[in-house]
Specification:
The chain is an alpha/beta fold and 187 residues long. It contains 7 helices and 4 strands. The longest helix is centred in the middle third of the chain and has 19 residues. It catalyses: epoxyqueuosine(34) in tRNA + AH2 = queuosine(34) in tRNA + A + H2O.
């Protein structure tokens, strides 16, 4: 029987290339859509629905966890510059715990696919969660698959989101069009 990996999935387009790569490597992939960072709720629903469409085509089971954005929003607004690390850690923590409960052999995340994420930080947080749970964090730099994933998501007509997820990342994304500085000034 193939080893089972629980893949935290931020959205359908970011899942495509990693899922295909993991399957090619012999993993049985189960997805976990846990993203309390996504705001507003309509955006969350668009991303959830795009993932459902992708999962059907990929023939992959996906677990959909609760959507409770208020604690994340409060934390982000309390520390706008430091918001990303806790956001990633929360999602990796839920993924590791769920993987352990399900009896998976490892866990990982599609955040490793994005060119815009703190890769070293994600890797460190995943390894810390692995140590805490005793379940291996499967690290792979999926960014090399970026063009392939983008092309496939467009070919499949999947909704492609224009910002990371939280309201502050949306403000950062549209700051220039709004004629204002980013919500969080560059470091």
């Amino acid at each position: 029987m193939a080893a089972r990996v629980l893949l935290h999935i931020c959205c359908g387009p970011c899942a495509l290339a990693p899922v295909l790569r993991l399957k090619e490597a012999g993993w049985l992939v189960t997805g976990l859509f846990y993203n309390p960072n996504i705001q507003p709720a309509a955006e969350y629903l668009r991303r959830r629905d795009a993932l459902a469409a992708a999962a059907a085509r990929l023939e992959m089971e996906v677990l959909y966890d609760d959507y409770e954005p208020l604690p994340h929003l409060r934390r982000s607004l309390a520390d706008p510059q430091g918001r990303c690390g806790p956001c990633t850690d929360e999602r990796l923590g839920r993924t590791a715990a769920t993987a352990r409960t399900l009896g998976c052999d490892a866990f990982t995340t599609t955040l490793l696919y994005s060119r815009y994420q703190d890769h070293a930080g994600i890797k460190a947080q995943g390894e810390a969660r692995a140590e805490a749970t005793g379940l291996p964090f499967l690290y792979e730099d999926f960014r090399v698959l970026w063009d392939e994933g983008v092309a496939l998501s467009k070919a499949w007509g999947l909704y492609r989101q224009p910002y990371c997820g939280c309201v502050l990342s949306e403000l950062d994304r549209y700051a220039k069009k709004l004629g204002r500085p980013p919500a969080v000034p560059p470091r």
